[in-house]
Structures are given as C-alpha cells and as structure tokens.
Amino acid sequence: MNNHWNKIIYRVWAPIYDYFFNSGPFLKARKVIFENLKITAENQILLVGVGTGADLPFIHGEDISVTAIDLSPEMLNKAKNKYDSPSVAFMVMDAQDLKFLSGSFDIVIANLILSVVPDPEQCLRETIRVTSTGGQIVIFDKFVPPTQKLSILKKIMRPVIGMMGTDIGRRFEQIVMPYAESVVIEENSPVLFAGMYRKIVLRKK
Questions:
Q1: Which domain CATH number covers 71?
Q2: Which of 10, 49, 125, 195 has its CA 20 to 30 A from that of 118?
C-alpha cells in the first residue's frame, strides 16, 4: 500500500464506493458514530479522508464550517457533486501530511482512513496535531480486536485485500501507543461485524 497505488485503486472505487460503504450495515454504523456527537456552529470540523462524502449528511449544515480532504480527486469530486456548499471546503490532501496549523480544528472525523493510509501512525500523529486542546477525534474503522490473534485465513488474505486499498491486520492499540500522553480514549466500542469495525473517540489533552 502506498499513495500512488491508493490514488489508482480509489479512482476505480469512486463510482461504486457508495453501494458498498454508504448503504445497509455501513450506513447504520455511520449513524451510530454520529449519534452522540455534539456539533455546533462554533466548531471547526475536519473530515480526514472524506471519500465520496458518506459522513457529510450527519454534520452538513449552512451554519457549520467543514473542511473535507481526500487523497483521491475522483472520490473528492463525488463528494463535492453531492454536497457542494459554501460551508464545506473540499481539498485534495494527504492525510499523512495535513497542511493546517496545529490546533486548527475542534472535531476531527477520521472514518475508514487509518486502515487505508500507508503509515497509520503518521496519519494519527497529524490528526492529533491539528486538533485543538480539548478537541475530539472520532474514528470508525476496522482493527484486529486487542485480545484476538489474526487468523490464518486473514493472514493469507491480508496482502490480497491490501491490493484493494485497505488493511485488515492493523491494531489500534499499536497505532495509538506512541501518542498515549497526548490523548485520552473516551470510547472504544464495537459497532459492526462482531467488533471488526469499532468506534473510537479520543480527546486531546
């Protein structure tokens, strides 16, 4: 997995992405992710890896300022075509190298991105950096449960699925470990497919 390949594979995914990840159980899961999130007009919000804009209906509003970034121009254009609004700024950007000042955002949404980027630790580091002190980072993604070993089948399938643009073998506990002094884990709960997909809420210290 690297940025060059991700740009290619998500160009392919763009026309069909919503059929898989913005419907059925994934749509229900997204509702769970946002149901207790308090967003006001005063909040500056960043969507890291906005994709086709599946999360925008849950936070979109004329009085709410949203910055939405994605590495794939094709995915970003799909989102912009659906939710083109003066209150949403769309930018092509690498989630591992955010071009924002530190502490710029009160709420950062990082859904289905830590399993996609080549370097999830760097991505989380950047996400924490641009979050304001006391701000929240909301994560919805697939991780290997902390008490579970990766099955032989998943070990075999991991490189194959990786070619499709995602990694099924990452552990959030390892990704967040270098930043344990910077954030508090407020929530870490299963939301989909027997805990394979989890909702994680971090608060920046």
A1: 3.40.50.150
A2: 195
> What's the structural domain count of the chain?
1
Q: Which domain holds residue 177?
A: 3-204
Question: Cβ(69)–Cβ(46) under 8 Å?
Answer: yes
Contact criterion met (CB below 8 Å) for 19 and 87: no
pLDDT in tens, the chain (205 residues): 789 999 999 999 999 999 999 999 999 999 999 998 999 889 999 999 999 999 999 986 668 899 999 999 999 999 999 888 888 999 999 999 999 999 999 999 999 999 999 999 999 999 999 999 999 999 999 999 988 899 999 999 999 999 999 999 999 999 999 999 999 999 999 999 989 999 999 999 9
Name residues whose C-beta falls within 8 Å of residue 126's C-beta, 6 or more positions apart in sequence. 95, 96, 97, 98
- The closest alpha carbon to 49, from 84, 87, 17, belongs to 17
For residue 29, the one-letter residue type is A
